[in-house]
Amino acid sequence: MTAVLGFGGYVPERVMTNEDWSRLVDTTDEWITSRTGIKERRFAAEDESTLDLSEQAALVAMKDAGLNPDDIDEIVVATDTPEVYTPDTASLLQDRLGCRNVPTYDLGGSGCAGWIQAIDVARARIAFEPKKVLVVGVELISRLISWEDRATCVLFGDAAGAVVLGPGGGKATLVDVISGTDGSKADILTLQTGGTRHPFTVDSAAAGDHQRLDMKGSEVFREAVRRMSSVTLDLLERLDKDIDDIALLIPHQANKRIIDAVGQKLGIADERVFVNVDRYGNTGSATVPFGLWEAYEGGRIQPGDLVVLTAFGAGFHWASAALQF
Ligand SMILES: CC(C)(COP(=O)(O)OP(=O)(O)OC[C@H]1O[C@@H](n2cnc3c(N)ncnc32)[C@H](O)[C@@H]1OP(=O)(O)O)[C@@H](O)C(=O)NCCC(=O)NCCS
């Protein structure tokens, strides 16, 4: 069965607080805190990009696994904020890390559920052929969204998380993953300009359309709670486990109110639900692997623990994964 051989995470140093945002757009710490639970987030320095964040998280995960770049057999990067339009961030990461000429690919556009989908793809690859697969979730959202749209800009931050997966041994077993998609809800969270339907033009760039994240906040909220809780229950049922068997639930960190609502729906005690959204905001596909690394590194996970990950994202996608430590 697929194993996690090492965990990694990285956040840039620069802290952006709610007070900082309140000096740039018409918002307040009180509004952001009460609606989202976010107090601060990290933003990449001007000379940092997606590849730098990916590299840092990957180095930590490879070190934790006791592996060198030469040992990696495949690389997957889940991101909606790639290093460049083409090629994929994963090819650039292969070169940056000094890996062999192993296959690499990005899983892009899946928003915040992208990294759990990526480990699902990776475990299928490993089942087919025993390999060591580096799976990174990375987002540098501060560079791609509007700094003028108060409804979205205050929600996000930059981060990267990574694991190395392999065919056995390691620190935890990836027991199961369930994911799903409702493409009819693609419009509730979308950035349209830049694709073939709405290519970049001088006018669209001048209007800032390339940074316009269209978000139906309350619909996203509702779907997030519904889908993260139901996919977690489906996963538990398939594993013949119940809520009390979960030592730690690591949900996608988009909003503390969403996390609380999922916890209530599942009937899980607050102390068994991981939260770091107050310190990092929503870091897209990085929230789950980064949170997993923080929990592991911070000693919140013990041998024998069942850890459940769950996420939702633009698509509309949802996914849950179970790790047995
Ligand atoms: C976005 C979100 C925080 C808004 O919270 P909410 O409780 O629905 O907000 P409310 O309906 O109470 O308030 C909306 C009002 O606040 C205003 N507002 C929006 N952002 C604001 C900000 N940063 N500061 C102050 N006011 C703001 C809006 O303009 C609106 O004003 P209006 O009523 O005069 O039109 C919430 O819907 C949410 O988190 N949704 C999920 C989003 C998400 O997770 N996205 C990422 C998915 S991966």
Please give the order of strands in the largest beta sheet. Answer: 5-4-6-7-1-8-13-12-11
Give the rounded overall mean pLDDT: 97
Topology, number of strands:
13
CATH fold annotation of the largest domain: Peroxisomal Thiolase, Chain A, domain 1
What distance lies between the first and last C-alpha atoms, to the nearest angstrom?
13 Å
- Contiguous low-pLDDT stretches (5 residues minimum) are none
CATH class of the largest domain: Alpha Beta
Our count of domains comes out at 2
Unique bound compounds:
coenzyme A
Number of helices: 11
Helix content: 25-40%
Q: What do we call the CATH homologous superfamily of the largest domain?
A: Thiolase/Chalcone synthase
Write the CATH architecture name of the largest domain.
Answer: 3-Layer(aba) Sandwich
Spell the H/E element sequence: EEHHEHEHEHEHEEEHEHEHHHEE
Shape: globular
Oligomeric description of these chains: single chain
Structural class: alpha+beta
Rounded to the nearest angstrom, the radius of gyration is 19 Å
**Main sheet attributes: strand count, strand direction, barrel closure:** 9 strands, mixed
Strand content is: 15-25%
Task: Report on this structure.
It is built from 11 helices and 13 strands. By secondary structure, it is an alpha+beta fold. The chain folds into 2 domains: about 170 residues, Thiolase/Chalcone synthase (Peroxisomal Thiolase, Chain A, domain 1, 3-Layer(aba) Sandwich), CATH 3.40.47; about 150 residues, Thiolase/Chalcone synthase (Peroxisomal Thiolase, Chain A, domain 1), CATH 3.40.47.10. Strands 5-4-6-7-1-8-13-12-11 form a 9-stranded mixed sheet, sandwiched between helices. The chain has a two-stranded antiparallel ribbon with strand order 2-3. The longest helix is centred in the C-terminal third of the chain and has 23 residues. The protein is globular, with a radius of gyration of 19 Å. The two termini are about 15 Å apart. The structure holds coenzyme A.
